[in-house]
């Protein structure tokens, strides 16, 4: 057994090796999906050095310009916070510095205004600037581009078709919003119908839905664990999971991404040593992982996570935001992808903002768990319920995926997504690009490394008719 870069993989011979690979050589894992492969080609050393150098030059130039600005020699304005006597700074200095001198240089690549439905193709408004992107103005032109940047995995987010028509009818019946929480006057029959359908679709006893995906994690985790509990979190978990863990007050420890040996080591230490300075057993140990990781495109090694959970009597919190609807033969996520029993997952979370073309999120589990969240979750008590039209969008798209509309449209879309994913990855690798992640992951990260290239490739793709997302440090590792 070898461990390197925090990843382990089981080869066809049953031998564990590191999850990363050099020179594009892949390691495979013989789960139920026999073509489970993940590729994490090592960064060439000269590329790594040049990337650090590129960021270093940007930071150095930024400090020089700040010095010139403070001396009155720099005329270019800066969005800096005024220094007021007796007041604590509102922004952290590094965040403000990074926004001024790094993010601003490629600001045109983010927050692009879209003036059409963000479907298979979309119209992106063109912007220009006269002050180095401190501000931007519209030129009146637009670019029609292929949408390669959204999470509309199955194409249900559209302004026409059965989903849109059903959503329109729901507005006529229920109105545009509920204006109340679940525990007041905001819980309609359509919300109950949605909760029941989500539970049935996932194969769980019960489910509860929330109007915001981010809050589904951040506002519900504090209701599940607290002081005296331990959270073991994958180091690459989403910000919503990180925030929810911090708000809970529980002790947090991270383990290396998808490294089951490191996870077991920390589980064993937690069981043997207990709480620090008190030597008492932890009230709960919660393992927090995602199905598909949105920046790396990797898939969690869920069979091994469940084995460790059972071995050390822990709980599993699974975030299926990017895997529900996108993995598995019927779109039921990473649990179905590995052929596992969904009841082995203690807390199954997901969002409706990807495959279902809507908004909000859900948590599924036992009836006891869901009843607890209904009574104790801040997201359930204080937040207005989901808009009826959004509920209907989810009901319609989920029914199509399940085949309840009497057609094979849902299965067809799932199969098309799988084909597109594999074809897109294979052709990019053939052209020599470094592509990360699992071969079946709908998230396809293409590495360009340099912050200057982020802007260049985004602008070039827009001109060529491709709408992509570029992401850099600190949203990803440098």
UniProtKB/TrEMBL annotation:
Pathway: Sphingolipid metabolism; Lipid metabolism; sphingolipid metabolism
Protein name per the record: serine C-palmitoyltransferase
Residue ranges with Polar residues bias: 1-10
GO molecular function per UniProt: pyridoxal phosphate binding; serine C-palmitoyltransferase activity
Co-factor requirement: pyridoxal 5'-phosphate
Family: Belongs to the class-II pyridoxal-phosphate-dependent aminotransferase family.
Lineage: Eukaryota, Metazoa, Spiralia, Lophotrochozoa, Mollusca
Top class in the EC scheme: transferase
Pfam families: Aminotran_1_2
Renumbered residue ranges of the record's region Disordered: 1-31
Superkingdom of the source species: Eukaryota
Major subcellular location class: endoplasmic reticulum
Matches recorded under PROSITE patterns: AA_TRANSFER_CLASS_2
Subcellular location: Endoplasmic reticulum; Membrane
UniProt-listed PANTHER family: CLASS II AMINOTRANSFERASE/8-AMINO-7-OXONONANOATE SYNTHASE, LD36009P
Transmembrane segments annotated in the record for this chain: 45-64
Keyword Hydrolase: no
CDD domains assigned: KBL_like
Catalytic activity reported: L-serine + hexadecanoyl-CoA + H(+) = 3-oxosphinganine + CO2 + CoA
Domain Aminotransferase class I/classII large residue range list: 144-464
EC number: 2.3.1.50
Keywords annotated in UniProt: Acyltransferase, Endoplasmic reticulum, Lipid metabolism, Membrane, Pyridoxal phosphate, Sphingolipid metabolism, Transferase, Transmembrane, Transmembrane helix
Origin species: Mytilus edulis
InterPro entries noted in UniProt: Aminotrans_II_pyridoxalP_BS (IPR001917), Aminotransferase_I/II_large (IPR004839), AON_synthase_class-II (IPR050087), PyrdxlP-dep_Trfase (IPR015424), PyrdxlP-dep_Trfase_major (IPR015421), PyrdxlP-dep_Trfase_small (IPR015422)
Example of a GO cellular component annotation carried by this entry: endoplasmic reticulum
GO annotation terms (biological process): ceramide biosynthetic process; sphingosine biosynthetic process
């Amino acid at each position: 057994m070898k461990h390197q870069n925090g990843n382990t993989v089981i080869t066809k011979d049953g031998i564990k090796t590191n999850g990363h690979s050099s020179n594009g050589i892949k390691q495979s894992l013989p789960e139920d999906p026999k073509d489970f492969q993940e590729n994490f080609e090592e960064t060439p050393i000269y590329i790594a050095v040049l990337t650090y150098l590129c960021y270093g030059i940007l930071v150095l130039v930024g400090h020089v310009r700040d010095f010139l600005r403070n001396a009155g020699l720099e005329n270019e304005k800066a969005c800096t916070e005024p220094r007021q006597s007796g007041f604590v700074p509102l922004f952290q200095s590094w965040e403000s510095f990074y926004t001024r001198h790094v993010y601003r240089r490629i600001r045109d690549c983010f927050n692009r205004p879209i003036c059409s439905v963000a479907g298979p193709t979309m119209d992106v408004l063109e912007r220009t600037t006269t002050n180095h992107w401190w501000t931007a103005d519209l030129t009146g032109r637009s670019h029609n581009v292929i949408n390669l940047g959204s999470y509309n995995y199955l194409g249900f987010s559209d302004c026409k078709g059965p989903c849109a028509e059903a959503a329109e009818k729901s507005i006529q019946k229920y109105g545009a919003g509920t204006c109340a929480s679940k525990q007041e006057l905001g819980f309609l029959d359509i919300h109950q119908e949605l909760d029941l359908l989500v539970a049935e679709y996932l194969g769980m006893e019960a489910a509860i839905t929330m109007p915001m995906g981010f809050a589904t994690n951040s506002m519900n985790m504090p209701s599940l664990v607290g002081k005296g509990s331990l959270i073991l979190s994958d180091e690459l978990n989403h910000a919503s999971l990180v925030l929810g863990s911090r708000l809970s007050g529980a002790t947090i420890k991270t383990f290396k991404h998808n490294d089951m040996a490191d996870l077991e080591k920390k589980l064993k230490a937690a069981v043997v040593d207990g709480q620090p300075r008190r030597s008492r057993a932890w009230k709960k140990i919660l393992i927090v992982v995602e199905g598909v990781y949105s920046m790396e495109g990797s898939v969690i090694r869920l069979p091994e996570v469940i084995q460790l959970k059972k071995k050390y009597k822990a709980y599993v919190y699974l975030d299926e935001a990017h895997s529900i609807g996108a993995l598995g033969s019927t779109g039921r996520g990473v649990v179905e992808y590995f052929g596992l029993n969904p009841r082995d997952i203690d807390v199954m979370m997901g969002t409706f903002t990807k495959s279902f073309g809507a908004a909000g999120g859900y948590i599924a589990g036992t009836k006891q768990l869901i009843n607890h969240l209904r009574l104790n979750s801040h997201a359930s008590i204080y937040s207005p319920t989901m808009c009826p039209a959004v509920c209907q969008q989810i009901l319609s798209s989920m029914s199509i995926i399940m085949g309840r509309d009497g057609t094979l449209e849902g299965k067809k879309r799932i199969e098309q997504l799988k084909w597109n994913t594999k074809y897109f990855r294979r052709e990019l690798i053939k052209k020599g690009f470094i592509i990360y992640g699992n071969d079946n992951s709908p998230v396809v990260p293409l590495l360009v490394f340099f912050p200057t290239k982020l802007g260049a490739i985004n602008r070039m793709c827009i001109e060529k008719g491709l709408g992509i997302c570029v992401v850099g440090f600190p949203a990803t590792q440098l």
